[in-house]
Prior knowledge:
Layout: H1 5-17, H2 22-35, H3 41-60
Amino acid sequence: MALSRKHYEELAKILGENNASTDLINDISSFCKIDNRAFRPNTFIDRIKEVKNVSINIIKDKEFFLNK
């Protein structure tokens, strides 16, 4: 069974939210490329970065209830 775009999105979300190491991201990206020749590692990594930035921005937000 090949992974779908939904699977890749969920993997990116998990890796981003858990601040995955570069090595882990590269290993999973390589696995995804083997699973699907059309897989675009740069798009996957960009999505992980987006998730990381959202998490970081919320925590540093002055309006976030835990920062008061």
